[in-house]
Design a protein that fits this description.
Helix content is about 45%, strand content about 10%. The chain is α/β, with parallel strands linked by helices and about 450 residues long. Belongs to the iron-containing alcohol dehydrogenase family.
Length: about 450
């Protein structure tokens, strides 16, 4: 199959990559993708747009592509939160669609991944609504999406357009919904979609993908030479891209299109099952702790990861096997420092201080501290959602989590109490001496 000759050539912004998981990985154009999907089904198309991109050039490109598929189309700007009522509302809008195109960040795409299943599979709706303490919801293995879903990400790092998971906000936090049926049938990686993304958020996206790909490698003690080599190559490439994004941020310029495209492609690859085949599926305990930390502190996920990661790696290096393998962490950190750029080679050889220095170099914010009450609350939430009889935390108890969080979030030092300045009093009476009363 050849590329559409009408597509602009020779510029990164003109190249658009479409991944069609039911056929092959090929360069393609939006009208061609939608037309090919139209051959499978006929009828109504729904385009879901994140409000952050609704008025952009990229949104106009998507809108222009949909009529080319010769399908009736509805374009909806979707601003509902990513909770169950929001998903149910979206399901009512897309239930009779024959093709759904979700354009936006993780919130919109995750809702679309869930909403396109609800009408066809009541069991899915039941599992999402059930009251449980576990932070993990596993969907029925026989669920099938009734229409193709095309995911078009406008942010970097989550890789949700290629993943079999979705986040669902709940009363007491976030749930992780898992099921192979959640993976979109197709995804589009277009540099124009992230052209307005601040360079600081590109760096955050690199850290998210890097943390996701190395966490199973470190958390599982097994030596798997082929999988290990694949992870190391992807992690090294991400580290190089992060340095390029960090340099752009420090220079006050946009991150180049080719860097953003590579970050998006690698982010999707970090979800590939073959990358971690044979590993413990619950070897990513740092992700679970960071998830609850972000909720309690009211911060975004990646600042929570950036806050936790140095303490987590320090604990692994110190010999906490339940959190990971110290030798494997040392090995992959040495690989990252040897990835090429001088700024990586200059990082501390100790992984904990090293990753802290890299996070700061990429100008990703970290929380300065938290009160003991917040640390206690986070530790209890972590154990409630992922441990205490559930398998995800392994042997970690609340005290273990509390100790890690205390190292990551030292208690803020209160400012010194100012010494009150001397206040002027009433005028003093003159001192009377014997001489004062002496008369001539």
């Amino acid at each position: 199959m050849t590329a559409n000759p009408a597509r602009p050539a020779g510029t990164a912004e003109g190249r658009r990559t479409v991944v069609d998981r039911r056929t092959a990985v090929l360069p393609h154009d939006y009208p061609g993708l939608l037309a090919r999907l139209a051959l499978r089904t006929g009828g109504r198309t729904v385009v879901l747009l994140d409000p952050g991109v609704a008025g952009t050039e990229f949104a106009a490109r998507i809108r222009a592509a949909v009529p080319a598929s010769r399908r009736d189309a509805d374009v909806l700007v979707w601003s509902r939160p990513g909770d169950l009522p929001g998903v149910q509302d979206m399901a009512r809008q897309v239930g009779d669609a024959d093709l759904v195109v979700a354009v936006g960040g993780g919130t919109v795409i995750d809702q679309a991944k869930l909403a396109t299943l609800l009408d066809a599979h009541p069991a899915v709706a039941g599992r999402l609504a059930v009251t449980q303490r576990s932070g993990l919801v596993v969907l029925p293995s026989d669920a099938v999406r009734p229409m193709p879903l095309v995911a078009v990400p406008t942010t970097l790092g989550t890789g949700t357009e290629a993943s079999a998971v979705a986040c669902l906000a709940h009363t007491w936090g976030k749930r992780l919904v898992l099921g192979s049926v959640l993976t979109p049938e197709s995804s589009v990686v277009d540099p124009l979609a992230t052209a307005s993304l601040p360079s600081a958020l590109v760096a955050e996206g690199v850290l998210e993908a890097l943390f996701r790909v190395v966490s199973p490698y470190i958390g599982d003690h097994s030596e798997l030479p082929t999988e290990d080599a694949l992870v190391e190559v992807i992690a090294q490439r991400l580290a190089v891209l992060g340095c390029q994004a960090g340099q752009a941020d420090r220079s006050g310029v946009a991150v180049p299109a080719e860097v953003r495209v590579d970050v998006a492609r690698l982010s999707g690859l970090t979800h590939a099952g073959w990358l971690h085949r044979g590993r413990d599926p619950y070897s990513v305990k740092g992700w679970l702790i960071a998830n609850e930390l972000s909720t309690v502190l009211g911060i975004r996920k990646i600042p929570a990861v950036a806050t936790l990661l140095p303490a987590l790696w320090t604990a692994v290096t110190a010999g906490e096997p339940r959190l990971g393998s110290a030798p494997r962490l040392a090995r992959i950190w040495s690989r990252l420092r040897a990835a090429g750029p001088a700024e990586l080679a200059a990082l501390p050889a100790d992984p904990g201080p090293g990753i802290a220095a890299l996070i700061d170099h990429w100008r990703i914010g970290r929380e300065a501290g938290a009160d003991p009450e917040l640390i206690d609350e986070t530790a209890l939430r972590v154990v409630r959602a992922w441990g205490s009889g559930l398998p995800m935390l392994g042997g970690l108890a609340a005290e273990d989590v509390r100790r890690l969080l205390t190292a990551a979030l030292p208690q803020p030092v209160p400012p010194p109490t100012p010494v009150p300045a001397a206040q002027p009093g009433p005028a003093s009476a003159p001192t009377l001496t014997t001489a004062s009363w002496t008369t001539a």
